[in-house]
Amino acid sequence: MIRRVLTLGLPAVWGAVAITYKLACPLAREESLGARIVTSAVFFAVGTGLIFHARRSLLRELRQVREVAGAAQNVLLRPLPPRVEGLALAAGRLSASRGASVGGDLYEVVATDHGVRVVMGDVRGHGLAAIGTVAAVLGSFREAAHDEPELPLVLRRLERALARHLRERARAEHPACGGDPPKTPVSEEFVTVLLLEIDRDGGISALNCGHPWPHLLSGTARPLTDSDPLPPLGVFPLPADLPVLGCGRLLPGEALALHTDGMEDARDAAGTFFPLRAALTDAARVPPVSPQGVIRALYAQLLRHTGRLPTDDAALLVLRNDRTRVPPQQREAACAARPAMELSGRRRDERRR
């Protein structure tokens, strides 16, 4: 309440000072050069005070908007747990919007009855306009990942959620609603989506709609596969047949690095692309691969390479397989050895007889 009173009252005080000086001060009515200089100085001070007050108010409102946007983004891209079903996780994102953490990248990892399911995606564009699309895709994935037994069914749920969101946006942005023409028409919206499923044995299944393939980190970094992806969601309808691609196994100690195209498309001042694969190889050279270490190393190298914020959002997600066979406990080993000892004793007795 006090802040609101100050916000409204200070401009009135500055205005009252200027009017009082002009009407009540005899110096303001003189025509001499000195009187004019003093009058100009008074009005300059009043104007400067109003400008600084307006600037402070605008900066405060901008800070509040950014805090709200960042909170919304953190709700959508909630922090991932450090471990999910024996997989160590780490994720990071770098927004292209200066001074904000809002972007169009999305990711999620959930443990389901069908295995650990992962989504990585990239909405066309960035900033506040991308939040609605991110919310539609992520919300659909978090439900479908548990409900649907097969990856193709999960992908079709995402497609329907995106189509429904775009239809609602098209109605809201129609000229009849009185809004300004959108910078990004709905007809040009699309989302790249990568779906992965990692079973209990480390087997990797994938469906890819226009997204960069992840890299397998095992001493070096290499693409998980070189298969051609499907078109991004929103560009064309999904085909009737969606064959799931088997991508081998993620062995204990190995890691996967999923990323958006903002990582590999980043350029320096000379136009040279960021060497993503070489940077991943350097980060994974010494086993075991640390997901957090890979995140820190990659973003540090990316910022050194570009010398500024990238022109597109850049997200990175690293998963390491920590599933190892648990050695038997001493009690289990003793129980397992007791029948063998009893059998050996019976055989010795038989030989004596």
Kindly summarize this structure in a few lines.
The chain has 353 residues and is α+β, with helices and mostly antiparallel strands. The protein has eight helices and eleven strands. Strands 1-2-11-10-7-8 form a six-stranded antiparallel β-sheet. A five-stranded antiparallel β-sheet has the order 3-4-5-6-9, covered by helices on one side.
Itemize the secondary structure elements and their pairings.
Layout: H1 2-24, H2 33-76, E1 83-84, E2 87-94, E3 105-112, E4 115-123, H3 131-147, H4 151-172, E5 191-198, E6 203-209, E7 215-218, E8 220-223, E9 245-249, E10 255-259, H5 261-264, H6 276-283, H7 291-306, E11 314-321, H8 330-352
Antiparallel strand pairs: 1-2, 2-11, 3-4, 4-5, 5-6, 6-9, 7-8, 7-10, 10-11
Helix pairs in contact: 1-2, 3-4, 6-7
Biased composition (Basic and acidic residues): 344-353
InterPro entries: Bact_Sigma-Reg (IPR052016), PPM-type-like_dom_sf (IPR036457), PPM-type_phosphatase-like_dom (IPR001932)
Keywords: Hydrolase, Membrane, Transmembrane, Transmembrane helix
Could you explain how this protein is built, in words?
The protein has 353 residues and is an alpha+beta fold. It folds into two domains: 67 residues; 245 residues, PPM-type phosphatase domain (Phosphatase 2c, domain 1, 4-Layer Sandwich). It is 44% helix and 19% strand. It contains eight helices and eleven strands. The strands form two sheets. A six-stranded antiparallel beta sheet has the order 1-2-11-10-7-8. A five-stranded antiparallel beta sheet has the order 3-4-5-6-9, with helices on one face. Strand 1 and strand 2 form a beta hairpin. Helix 1 runs antiparallel to helix 2, helix 3 packs antiparallel against helix 4 and helix 6 packs antiparallel against helix 7.
